Amino acid sequence: MDCLFCKIAAGDIPSDKVYEDNQILAFRDINPQAPVHVLVIPRTHIASADEVTADNSALVARIFACIPQIAKKVGLANGYRVITNCGEDGCQSVKHLHFHILGGKKLTENMG
Ligand code: AMP
Ligand code: ZN
After folding, report:
1. What's the CA gap between 73 and 61, in Å, rounded?
2. All residues at 6 or more sequence positions from 4 whose CB lies less than 8 Å from its CB, including other chains
3. pLDDT by residue (tens digit) across 78-97?
4. Is 72 helix (H, G, I), strand (E, B) or coil?
5. 94 close to ligand 1 (CB < 6 Angstrom)
6. CA-CA to 32 of 20 to 30 Å: which in 5, 65, 85, 107?
7. Beta-carbon contacts of residue 7 (< 8 Å; ≥ 6 apart)
8. Which of 13, 39, 84 should be mutated for ligand 1, with most atoms under 8 A from CB?
9. Per-residue pLDDT tens digits for 18-70
10. Which CATH architecture fits 4-103?
11. Are 36 and 104 in contact (CB under 8 A)?
12. Where in the chain are the domains?
């Protein structure tokens, strides 16, 4: 499958990794939107949040269980934002489920 984040998960495309285990990977965004901007992905291809089902949601729970330690590791002691863009209106550009972790400054309140 021609998927950028599957290639990053496989190690075929390099990334600035901050956390990995056998199920998930976290790496720094190549075009950071905040002083700290990390992406967390499942190694398995799930296209978007709209493709989460009862069968694969344990992986999403696992990502969220790892987010606190990832945030701590990259120095986000004062809070952060977790975002997933989904589909056309959500401006999702990479069609492999990923959660943005943003922080390192006081973010704006604008969510939309
Ligand atoms: P989204 O717009 O939610 O689909 O987010 C995709 C994100 O992937 C964007 O923030 C991009 O900057 C980021 N991105 C694209 N290519 C790479 C890459 N090779 N390494 C790290 N981040 C990337
Ligand atoms: Zn993929």
Report:
1. 19
2. 13, 94, 96
3. 999 999 999 999 999 999 99
4. helix
5. yes
6. 65
7. 13
8. 39
9. 999 999 999 999 999 999 999 999 999 999 999 999 999 999 999 999 999 99
10. 2-Layer Sandwich (3.30)
11. yes
12. 4-103
